[in-house]
Specification:
Keywords: GTP-binding, Hydrolase, Nucleotide-binding, Riboflavin biosynthesis
Strand order of the largest sheet: 1-8-7-5-6-4-3-2
CATH superfamily of the largest domain: GTP cyclohydrolase II
Catalytic activity: GTP + 4 H2O = 2,5-diamino-6-hydroxy-4-(5-phosphoribosylamino)-pyrimidine + formate + 2 phosphate + 3 H(+)
Shape: globular
Helix content: 25-40%
Organism: Podospora fimiseda
Largest sheet: 8 strands, mixed
Order of helices and strands: HHHEEEEHHEHHEHHHHEHEH
Structural class: alpha/beta
GO molecular function: GTP binding; GTP cyclohydrolase II activity
Number of strands: 8
Protein name: GTP cyclohydrolase II
CATH topology of the largest domain: Rossmann fold
């Protein structure tokens, strides 16, 4: 029976790991069958001086002695269980992973914003009374460095002069406004702005490919697509900032949507609302306030900005233009679930897929005191649905 001291040590070591880690296992103690392996005999016997023998006789004698070894000889025994690796060993160090885990479909949690217990928090964000008007003006195929392909859609709207984007994975998700016929345009005009089906190739002259009819909506398996509403973050996506996990979330969303097992496609709505809507200049001022001791919410308030000035009406309108009514949303933010559904629930979020930091899951990512303080503030002050117990110590 283990002593209280050993039990305490095991519990203290386990409590420092995220909740989804398995406790550390101890090597199996050697049994009686393992004595010859755990206590080998390295003694050297002293024999009389060897007599001269015929070389051919010596070789034949050696061969016969090896072939006559009993099967219980240690050389022929498999190693004891304590030396064998298990079929699966959970990662015990952040930054390591089992490759097959990266190919698994993300697990979603059913949500329903129409009821208080629907898993969407208890806050009701302010929504636009009417959705903005959006139009996709161009689309292009983008081959990526990972080997996956996506279609980049550029949108204009009647609310601002910014170019918001939709990154679409899957061939059956299409823009209604892009495919609409425009007065006076030629077939070449449609090819150039991306209003075609199938693939482009040298010499193509028509926008319709009979083999790839424009269906719109969901992919073949009928499951709602994965959707990520992502606000622009120049610091996290371009200059490698460790103050937030925005760049990691964008990369992880694209990876999940491009998995071969994901047959429902995916959409990343990329909104140009830097710094939770306050702009890059004000965001950099907020960073200086954070270095002076404020957290990410306090810094915005000190600059006379809301803690979160973002709006998601454009995202709702863009998703509707892409033919979506039901989605699986990649987010930790309960406000985003209600906001993206629109003022009249024009879109319904069926599932929420958590965006857990990769370092918390032992699958790479990065660790920094700034990003951990940022996540802590989002959980405590903004209601983000992450488990603080999973935060590595």
């Amino acid at each position: 029976m283990p002593s209280p001291t050993s039990q305490w040590q095991q519990q203290s070591e386990t409590s420092q790991l995220p909740s989804f880690y398995s406790p550390k296992t101890e090597a199996q103690r050697p049994t009686e069958d393992d004595v010859d392996v755990s206590q080998p005999d390295f003694s050297v016997s002293v024999d009389p001086a060897p007599a001269k023998v015929n070389s051919d006789d010596a070789i034949s004698d050696a061969a016969s002695s090896v072939s006559s070894l009993p099967p219980s000889t240690p050389l022929n025994q498999p190693p004891p269980d304590s030396l064998l690796s298990p079929a699966f060993t959970p990662p015990s160090t952040p930054g390591t992973s089992t490759p097959s885990l990266l190919l698994q479909e993300p697990r979603g949690v059913p949500v329903d914003s129409s009821i208080p217990t629907g898993g969407c928090g208890n806050k009701h964000p302010r929504l636009l009374e009417t959705l903005p008007q959006v139009e996709c003006i161009v689309r292009a195929r983008i081959p990526t460095t990972t080997g996956a392909e996506m279609f980049l859609h550029l949108y204009t709207n009647n609310m601002d002069n910014k170019e918001h984007l939709a990154i679409v994975f899957g061939n059956n998700i299409r823009s209604k406004s892009l495919d609409a016929v425009r007065e006076g345009e030629t077939e070449m005009d449609r090819l150039i702005r991306g209003a075609y089906t199938g693939r482009l190739y040298p010499g193509r002259t028509t926008s319709v490919d009979p083999k790839h009819a424009a269906t719109g909506g969901q992919e073949a398996d009928g499951q709602p697509p994965l959707v990520r509403i992502h606000s622009e973050c120049y610091t996290g996506e371009t200059v490698w900032s460790a103050r937030c996990d925005c760049g990691e979330q964008l990369d992880e969303a694209a990876r999940l949507m491009s998995l071969p097992s994901n047959k429902s496609g995916g959409i990343i709505i990329y909104l140009r609302q830097e710094g939770r809507g306050i702009g890059l200049g004000e965001k950099l001022k907020a960073y200086n306030l954070q270095d002076l001791g404020s957290d990410t919410v306090e810094a915005n308030l000190l600059l006379r900005h809301p803690a979160d000035a973002r709006s998601y009406g454009l995202a709702t309108a863009m998703l509707l233009d892409l033919g979506q009514k039901d989605v699986r949303l990649l987010t930790n933010n309960p406000d985003k679930i209600r906001a993206v559904e629109g003022p009249n629930r024009e879109i319904v979020v069926r599932e929420r897929v958590a965006m857990v930091p990769l370092s918390w899951k032992g699958r790479g990512g990065f660790r920094a005191p700034e990003v951990e303080g940022y996540l802590k503030t989002k959980i405590e002050k903004m209601g983000h649905m992450l488990d603080m117990g999973a935060l590595p110590k």
